């Protein structure tokens, strides 16, 4: 295994975060990484003053598995896509921290370090994140027995731009991107979308996410393709949404239009909107005593996903 600065930082973060549950990091791909080309791009990792970790320029995507305490796993798994505007990954507050909370529910979690759009290292930057998300779903499903998972209970969760990626995975699975897609399904069992970027329309877009993924002068077809409220169908997985009304970064209407699309297509959806909280609150919206993770636990339970 190649040891990198990021690997060391991740290990230090996990060790400093209290009792360590079983976890391991493994690459998404063996051999050549699809939609990649030689470049000088090198992964960077920055530790903020508050201890947060931000990763940029990902060239070697991977998954970090967080396993529930022995005897508590219920067979459900969630792949977590951290946010960061498709320019960086808030991999601690919207990744590792969330994985540990899911473990407390008996849910196995996999934090996805996905490639961020980059013209220097990718022939088609618009599909690189989705390639990685679909490969993560494939890989976890293929290794379900190893982790004692039910292959029909593997969902995907995303925050902000990671929410856009999760929503894309939940609406674009019928035609997987890339070549050599194989026969393993890439349809998530459910979606958990946290203050997600949903629409690339001029009125609802998060400019940075749209520009980074499809460029500053996208075609109308590209805008429509990646406006996921327009891609919902009756086959879209059950969806759980959380957003704050005063979000100035990603307008709350992103979640609302996705919820409305679910309603139109008969997709079971549950949405929790807080009047305050802004953007990027991670596990804890400090403006309320309510914990969205409690609502998520109840939703999982109501759908039978916490039953062994």
Automatic annotation (TrEMBL):
Residues 1-22 form the signal peptide. Keywords: Hydrolase, Signal. Gene3D superfamilies: alpha/beta hydrolase. InterPro entries: AB_hydrolase_fold, BD-FAE-like_dom, GDXG_lipolytic_enzyme. Residues 66-260 form the BD-FAE-like domain. SUPFAM superfamilies: alpha/beta-Hydrolases (SSF53474). GO terms for molecular function: hydrolase activity. This is Alpha/beta hydrolase.
């Amino acid at each position: 295994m190649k040891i990198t600065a990021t690997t060391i930082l991740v290990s230090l973060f996990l060790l400093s975060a209290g009792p360590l549950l079983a976890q391991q990091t493994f690459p998404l791909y063996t051999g050549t990484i699809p939609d990649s080309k030689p470049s000088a791009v090198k992964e960077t990792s920055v530790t903020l003053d508050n201890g947060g970790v931000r990763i940029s320029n990902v060239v070697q995507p991977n998954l970090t598995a967080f396993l529930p305490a022995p005897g508590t796993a219920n067979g459900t798994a969630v792949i977590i896509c951290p946010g960061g505007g498709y320019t960086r990954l808030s991999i601690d507050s919207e990744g590792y921290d969330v994985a540990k909370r899911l473990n407390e529910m008996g849910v196995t979690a996999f934090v996805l370090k996905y490639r961020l759009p980059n013209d220097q290292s990718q022939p088609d930057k618009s599909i690189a994140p989705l390639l990685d998300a679909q490969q993560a779903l494939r890989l976890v499903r293929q290794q379900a027995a190893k982790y004692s998972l039910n292959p029909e209970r593997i969902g995907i969760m995303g925050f902000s731009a990671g929410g856009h990626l999760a929503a894309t995975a939940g609406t674009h699975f019928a035609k997987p991107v890339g070549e050599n897609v194989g026969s393993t399904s890439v349809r998530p069992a459910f979606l958990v979308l946290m203050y997600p970027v949903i629409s690339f329309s001029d009125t609802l877009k998060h400019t940075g996410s749209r520009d980074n993924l499809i460029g500053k002068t996208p075609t109308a077809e590209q805008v429509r393709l990646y406006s996921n409220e327009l891609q919902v169908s009756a086959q879209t997985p059950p969806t759980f949404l959380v957003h704050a009304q005063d979000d100035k970064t990603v307008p709350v209407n992103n979640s609302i239009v996705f919820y409305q699309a679910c309603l139109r297509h008969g997709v079971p959806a549950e949405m929790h909107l807080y009047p305050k909280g802004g953007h990027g609150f991670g596990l804890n919206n400090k403006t309320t005593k309510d914990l969205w993770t409690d609502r998520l636990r109840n939703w999982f339970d109501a759908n039978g996903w916490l039953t062994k």
